[in-house]
Amino acid sequence: MISRDKAPTAQETFMQMAQAAGLRGRLLVTLGILFLIRLGIHLPIPNINREEFARAIEGNNQILSFLDIFSGGGLSALGVFALGILPYINASIIIQLLTAAIPALENLQKNEGEAGRRKISQITRYVSLGWGVIQSVFLAAFWLKPFAVNYGPIFVIETALALVAGSMFVMWASELITEQGVGNGASLLIFVNIVATLPKALGDTIDFVQSGSRETVGRVIVLLLLFIATIVGIVFVQEGIRRIPIISARRQVGRRIFAEQRNYLPLRLNQGGVMPIIFATAILSLPLLAENFIRNPEYSKIVNTYLVPGGSQPWVYALIYLVSIVFFSYFYSSLIVNPVDVAQNLKKMGSSIPGIRPGKATSEYIERVLNRLTFLGAIFLGLIAIIPTAVESALNVRTFRGLGATSLLILVGVAIDTSRQIQTYVISQRYEGMVKQ
């Protein structure tokens, strides 16, 4: 009789990681590619005044500051990997939205199996290329114009080509991590880029504390405690699942009769993860982006008063931001879970929810539960998106600017997913060893 295995502890996991040759190879591939990408971020694009551009990003340009976080400082450094994984992330979001709207893409995803997923991946790569070209030309032609040494058509073409080539290389590297490394390549690249900005933030905070009074130290400690509490809350909510009980009917196969089985349908509290915050931030950044083209004093006054976090009416921005996050949480949840499809699949498998009739009643019940969960998850996302920024402003501690809700959600989510994949690989290695013995 074999005793039931327990989940490995952290020490056992590290020991087995060191002993498993296959896992060692995957970890080395992952670390090597991540190091190469970080190195490429600091390979400069010529004919640009980087000092002035970096100062512009550190100033009030919130769009570039937001993008610079996800490129790990590559945008402010203006290296060949300045765009990083952003075009691929944007293309993935676009394809997800189009899959729900275009029946042909939906058929590829649901009915074509692995071949359909490969086709969707190929389409995503082409969209990434097109989106990368648009972003590169826009960046070279407009944003970099005041900082170019010899601005002209040649500068725009050369800079755009360098940025596109770097972005496509990063996309290829992220897929290589996913296939031959550990974890999701795109998520790990964003994770590493965010982590790369932490030393500067910590250094600025230490300088801020040393140059201030005891009151300054207290404010920084309060903000750090808030970040810790936010991370704990993110872990609880990201792991929060509503388990809907499911009963499978008795069935007979030949002469054998299988008793009814009890299982559960897991519905996550936060179905969309960080995507609703990214969507809401992108939408709210459009008026600020349009300000560079409209050049109207009245329009600029409205934008800087109501539509930026540091405006004179921050509560209006917070309210609009919260409503946007709730809206996109429901929108993204509807893309991930379709109650009608879930009810039909349960009916095909001969399963049902106790006390709920199969078919339409099941889909309506799942939709009600999903709406409640989505509302709670959306309120949570809105609070962690608003509270850290509001507390930073109230305490007047600006050194952690950029390390907000989106960054914390990505850091926690990627860390949890990657550790799960490593533990799964270690457990599979253990069972393979037991079978061989």
Quick structural gist:
It is built from 17 helices and five strands. The chain has 437 residues and is mainly alpha-helical.
Topology summary:
Elements: H1 10-19, H2 21-41, H3 50-58, H4 62-70, H5 74-77, H6 86-101, H7 103-111, H8 113-143, H9 153-180, H10 185-210, H11 214-238, E1 241-248, E2 251-253, E3 256-258, E4 261-268, H12 275-294, H13 297-306, H14 314-336, H15 339-348, E5 351-352, H16 360-395, H17 405-436
Antiparallel strand pairs: 1-4, 1-5, 2-3
Structure report:
Helix content is 73%, strand content 5%. Helix 2 packs antiparallel against helix 9, helix 10 packs antiparallel against helix 11 and helix 12 crosses helix 14. Strand 2 and strand 3 form a beta hairpin. The strands form two sheets. Strands 4-1-5 form a three-stranded antiparallel β-sheet. The chain has a two-stranded antiparallel ribbon with strand order 2-3. The radius of gyration is 25 Å and the shape is globular. The chain is mainly alpha-helical. The N terminus is likely disordered.
- The share of residues in helices is over 70%
Major beta-sheet overview: 3 strands, antiparallel
Strands of the widest sheet, in order across it, are 4-1-5
Task: Give the strand tally.
Answer: 5
Beta content comes to 5-15%
Number of helices: 17
- Our Rg estimate from Cα atoms comes to 25 Å
Key features of this structure:
437 residues; three-stranded antiparallel sheet
